[in-house]
Design goal:
Number of strands of chain B: 0
CATH class of chain B: Mainly Alpha
Helix content of chain C: 25-40%
Oligomer: heterotrimer
Number of domains of chain B: 1
Order of helices and strands of chain B: HHHHHHHH
Strand order of the largest sheet of chain C: 6-7-8-3-9-10
Strand content of chain C: 15-25%
CATH architecture of chain B: Orthogonal Bundle
Radius of gyration of chain B: 16 Å
Order of helices and strands of chain C: EEEHEEHEHHHHHEHEHEEHHHH
CATH superfamily of the largest domain in chain C: P-loop containing nucleotide triphosphate hydrolases
Helix content of chain B: over 70%
Number of strands of chain C: 10
Number of helices of chain C: 13
Number of domains of chain C: 3
Number of helices of chain B: 8
Structural class of chain B: mainly alpha
Shape of chain B: globular
Distance between the termini of chain B: 15 Å
């Protein structure tokens, strides 16, 4: 049951130009394109961006099924955003009005604008996430944030915490799944309509999950302390390989898109 | 508790932010009702203090978005703010409030954190994330009315988890 | 009461690019009173199979029939299944959560909606039967018990539901040698008292000690389904599956190679001992 939840954001090992990009170049390009999605308002802009995303999805072999499965999951929400804007936004060129409902061309455009932004954001991030391991992403973030070290913010401790967390995820996921199954087999019920009973019904599932997770934390902390770990100064990150022509190409394309978007929507 | 232990507990809470929504995904209505990502963050703040609560509030939703695609990137910013405020305020209040009764300390810290997080997220939504298309009405509906069952369930579950962890000697008791 | 597993298949991560087959077209029948051992390497699908039988997973194709009724039909009463079939997962001590041992053990019976007096009687009986002292442990927090005691308490929680079929997934994994022996004796006693046992392990010695029938799984397929005698007779087939035979069988075979004449169908310690005494003489009691 757990496997169905990982679809749109799961790393899929493969060997494509997008997978081969240096994670730093890839994530900088990602943020640049994110800015483009946020800036874009016009039909021309969305068309260009759409074409770019389609070719990225094709290049990275992410495939439309994965890109859209994430979007489908928030489909109802998208519809809601669209309707909220289309019905309540008091835009120009009204078509129909009743009490606080206003349907206007401006409102529909606004709704479509917001919904498109969400769709493009999701498509962009699922391309990043299917082609980059979570470890690469966190390492790159730690690298991007490393100037904060000067402000005495413990960026490295933070990065260590995240990499430990990533290693815990599969173990804890499996354990939680087993605990939920085991309690179901002991006839645990979750379908009570009463709130208090619902909370009580969650206890047999939630308590054991937390207890076994904290037990693992306890064991690991003991082991680390026994080996003299004190936090703070630790490992020097292995340096990232230099940028290749592919990386520069990716950066150039995304910066060009960003510049074009800024000029177009000035 | 040593800093190392706090660091590892925080890492585990971050992992649970990813795992719990997945685990409860399959149980009808469970995820939407009990807001599974809030619990590890609040717990981390209560147990390890505000800097760790903040770290869990930032890293939990971030990592979950990276790994499972939930929350979708579009909602990530407001969720990051909401959860980090939970972590910070739960940590600060747990350190400040000492009524002598552990259960009361927990309730006050939790309620304070839940209110503060929702207030800040609401203000930021109005000013930045959804500027112009956001109203008090939407805030009350989104953060209180629909979330009320979740809040009540959290107020029942979190103290129960804290006491169970104390009984299992995995965290120190609040009062000796 | 019998369980029929009929052409059951299961797929992991169905509908995603990571989809893979976990079980392929499995069919067999569990008769009342059997002690069935399920053997196979990690990832062969043995845990999946027992979870399908316990109804915590749903097969992709095929049916599982309890007394002739498909347990995955919508009109099938899940509670009936919970009453008849109990499952002890690997490391069951992880599922303890209540304030006291008594509350934890009685969780299942309470969920089944049994009357309080019945719940109490079953709880006491279950705690005693796993070898814990009811009066001593009833008010203790299960989280403060020792490792072996925790596992006993967790198993008591399943026994208190009084299932007719008890499924055990690697029940003695992670226990010390003495406790392992106690546990095996305990499981054997449950079988002698009339429970049908279905036990999963990757340890052939553990399984061959008591099983009346062995199922061997490999890469999601049911390769062998027979008595241990018959299965151990074909040593070549077992080593093809990267599985050995039980230790007593190993000893008998090496002795036979050395020209010592012993019956070739021995695979448990007691018959081996008897055969050796008969062959070489000694103080036979």
């Amino acid at each position: 049951m757990m496997h169905s939840a990982i679809l749109s954001g799961h790393y899929l090992p493969n060997d494509t130009p997008i997978h081969r990009l240096n994670p730093r170049a890839k994530i900088i390009s990602f943020f640049t394109l994110l800015a483009v999605v946020i800036i874009t308002r016009s039909t021309v802009g969305y068309t260009a961006l759409g074409l770019l995303l389609l070719s990225l999805a094709h290049l990275s072999k992410t495939g439309p099924r994965i890109v859209f499965s994430g979007i489908r999951r928030v489909g109802l929400f998208l519809l809601l955003i669209f309707l909220m804007n289309a019905l309540f936004f008091n835009g120009d060129r009204p078509l129909w009005e009743y009490a606080f409902f206003h349907i206007s061309v401006g409102g529909i455009a606004q709704g479509a604008n917001v919904a498109l932004k969400v769709i493009f954001l999701m498509a962009l991030s699922s391309i990043l996430m299917t082609t980059t391991t979570p470890m690469e992403i966190t390492d790159t973030f730690a690298w991007l944030l490393s100037p904060l070290q000067r402000l005495r913010i413990p960026v490295h401790d933070f990065a260590l915490m995240i990499s430990i967390a990533i290693q815990f995820i599969p173990v804890l996921a499996e354990e939680s799944e087993t605990i939920i199954k085991a309690q179901t087999a002991r006839a645990a019920k979750l379908d009570s309509p009463k709130l208090r009973e619902k909370a009580n019904a969650l206890l047999p599932l939630v308590l054991p999950i937390f207890i076994s997770a904290f037990r693992r934390a306890d064991e690991l902390a003991l082991a680390m302390e026994a080996r003299g770990f004190r936090g703070g100064k630790f490992r020097t990150r292995k340096s990232s390989p230099g940028f290749t022509r592919l990386d520069f190409a990716a950066l150039t394309i995304s910066i060009a898109f960003c510049a074009a978007a800024v000029i177009l929507h000035r | 508790m040593s800093n190392v232990k706090k660091l590892i507990i925080t890492a585990v809470c971050i992992a649970l932010c990813v795992v719990l929504p997945m685990a409860f995904h399959a149980i009808p209505n469970a995820g939407s009702i009990f807001l599974p990502m809030h619990i590890p963050v609040l717990l981390c703040g209560l147990i390890c203090g505000w800097p760790f609560g903040l770290a869990a509030g930032l890293a939990g939703p971030f990592l979950s978005a990276l790994i499972t695609g939930m929350p979708p990137m579009a909602f990530l910013p407001s969720m990051l703010v909401e959860l980090s405020v939970y972590g910070i305020v739960a940590g600060i209040l747990a350190a400040l409030i000492r009524t002598g009764k552990p259960i009361l300390d927990l309730y006050f810290s939790l309620i304070g954190a839940l209110l503060a997080g929702r207030l800040v997220a609401g203000i930021l939504n109005a000013l930045i994330f959804r500027a112009g298309s956001y109203s008090i009405g939407a805030w009350v509906t989104g953060y209180f009315a629909t979330a009320l069952p979740g809040i009540i369930i959290q107020l029942i579950l979190i103290p129960a988890i804290v006491f169970a962890l104390e009984r299992a000697k995995l965290i120190p008791r609040r009062y000796n | 009461m019998s369980i029929v597993v009929e052409n059951v298949s299961y797929r992991y991560a169905a509908g995603t690019p990571l989809e893979s087959a976990a079980l392929k077209q499995i069919s067999f029948t569990i008769q009342p009173g059997e002690f069935i051992g399920i053997l196979g390497h990690t990832g062969c699908g043995k845990s999946t199979l027992i979870q399908l039988i316990a109804g915590v997973l749903t097969p992709a194709t095929g049916r599982i029939l309890l007394d002739g009724k498909d347990i995955n039909q919508r009109d099938f009463k899940r509670e009936y299944l919970r009453k008849k079939v109990g499952i002890v997962f690997q490391f069951p001590e992880q599922q303890l959560f209540e304030m006291t041992v008594e509350r934890d053990v009685s969780f299942g019976p309470r969920q089944l909606g049994l009357p309080p007096s019945e719940v109490q009687a079953r709880t006491r009986q279950a705690i005693q039967s796993v070898g814990l002292d009811y009066e001593t442990v009833r008010d203790l927090s299960p989280l403060t018990l020792s490792g072996g005691e925790k596992r006993r308490a967790a198993i008591a929680g399943i026994l208190a539901m009084e299932p007719e079929i008890l499924i055990l997934d690697e029940p003695i994994a992670g226990l010390d040698p003495v406790t392992r022996k106690d546990f095996m004796a305990f499981i054997r006693r449950l079988h002698q008292e009339g429970k049908t046992i279905l036990m999963v392990s990757h340890d052939i010695d553990e399984l061959s000690a008591f099983s009346s029938r062995l199922l061997v799984l490999d890469h999601g397929e049911l390769i062998l389904d027979n008595t241990p005698e018959k299965i151990f007779a074909d040593k070549a087939r077992l080593s093809e599956l990267r599985l050995g035979v039980s230790q007593p069988k190993e000893i008998v075979d090496s002795l036979r190679e050395k020209g010592i004449d012993l019956p070739s169908d021995i695979f448990r310690y007691e018959p081996l001992l008897t055969a050796l005494i008969n062959r070489f003489g000694g103080q036979n009691e």
